[in-house]
Amino acid sequence: MIVGCLIYLFAVLLNKVSLEVSVTGYVGDPAVLPCSYTEDKNKVQEVSWKYDHKKIVYEFSPESPQSNMDSERFESFRDEYDSGNYSIKIKKLVITDKGVYTCIITPADYVANIKLIIKEQTKIQDPSSKGHYPFPMLLDWL
């Protein structure tokens, strides 16, 4: 009896999927935060994107043509909803965009965490090279 209950509990917990991936982007460039769910499209009524597990930055319903969030900075791929792609794109990254974004698909109980790492490309002049162009250097912001 106890073994049966444990197997059932394990199966229920497996149904709640949680993944974490990292995406690296550069200041000023766009970045795509991936989220896909293809198991049962009938269970997708709403997709929410949260920043640092608190603030909702983008939210939409696959059946609704509009999102109710900041379309100046974020966009989704509406023509790919039927194939299960609920990714979003941040149009122009800034340093403060770094952190963990969470894609939540309800009522399917699907959760995906995406860690966004921001790098800045700056040009530094080599003091020993007079008259030469500065060379690019990548800086990591953690």
Estimate percent helicity: under 10%
Q: What is the CATH superfamily label?
A: Immunoglobulins
Which runs of at least 5 residues are low in confidence (pLDDT < 50)? 3-17
Our count of helices gives: 1
* N/C terminus separation: 49 Å
User: Rg to the nearest angstrom?
Assistant: 20 Å
Major sheet summary line:
6 strands, mixed
Describe this structure in words.
The model is unreliable at about 5-15 (pLDDT under 50). Strands 1, 3, 4, 7, 8 and 9 form a 6-stranded mixed sheet that branches. A 3-stranded antiparallel sheet has the order 2-6-5, with no helix packed on it. With about 140 residues, it is mostly beta strands. The termini are far apart. It is elongated, with a radius of gyration of 20 Å. The longest helix has 14 residues, at about 1-15. The chain has 1 helix and 9 strands, in the order H-E-E-E-E-E-E-E-E-E. It has one domain: Immunoglobulins (Immunoglobulin-like).
